[in-house]
Please model this.
Amino acid sequence: MTSAFPIVRLRHFETGDAATRQRIAAEVDEICRTTGFLAIAEHGIAPEVIADAWDKAKMFFDQPAETKQQVKVPYPGYPFGYMGPGSEALAASRGMATPPDLKESFNGGPPSVPPGLTDADALAFCYAPTPWPDAPQGFREAWAAYYAALEDLASRIMTLFAAALGLPDDFFANKIDHPVSALRALNYPEVDVAPAPGQLRAGAHSDYGSLTILLPQPGSEGLQIEQADGSWRDVPPIPGAFVINIGDLMARWTNERWVSTVHRVVNPSRPEAAEARRQSFAYFHQANWFANIECLDVCLAPGETPKHPPVLSGPYLMSKFKSTVAA
Model:
């Protein structure tokens, strides 16, 4: 780790001896108890997979608005496809009324439906078809490769999380073998008009699932996390690393031993930053649709009761997502 921002080298955990694994797991536990934000380096994902997805997303966002609208979400509350500026207000997930966020996004879900799944809500929401754009050429293939790489990385991070909680390495395996995860490419356009009062690139919110894997634009600014005293701390992009944060379901799983930290993307303060767009990828890892999220025994002290009732992963995600759709 570094004192400025915690960096965990995943390869060191996966290839280390028992003492090394235990040390890294203890570090991760401490991070997740305090901020829930860390960087994962030496993750093993091929640079060309990342670069191809990044470039194709940039080419997609560079297209005229009317072209992007051809793959827009079919109706408010539909999870996948293109969402233009003004489509979402993330702060609404915390009950806060704000103007819509200053961003646009393309969103895609799981590549296939698990055999035998018949739940109507699951099929209509997490497994709803993604409307794929015709251009740029190779967009869908680059997206699929990146999604698959991040799904594998998320599973490996969950193994690290199990160790950090003192659980067997495979504890989460049967709860995330059919994750209802979503991948989101985000574009924050240049700020050429003064934002409305309270309007941000992304309003203050916590993520909903087990963990998020964020790839911010190199050298970008704006991502901030809320600290215990209510102040905000910048989260810097780490070259060659992903920014990881845990979400609400992991906080519920751990009886809030681990914190799902509120974060936001603020508007640029420097004129040169305001005149430039900002892009990122966010992979929202979510346990299986029917995974029962309830307090882990290892996170419950003698005589203590769970802070939250059990919830099912998919329906919980669906309710949180639909609360953010701008009217």
Observations:
- The chain has a mean pLDDT of 89.
- The CA atoms of residues 213 and 244 lie 5 Å apart.
- The chain has one domain: 7-322.
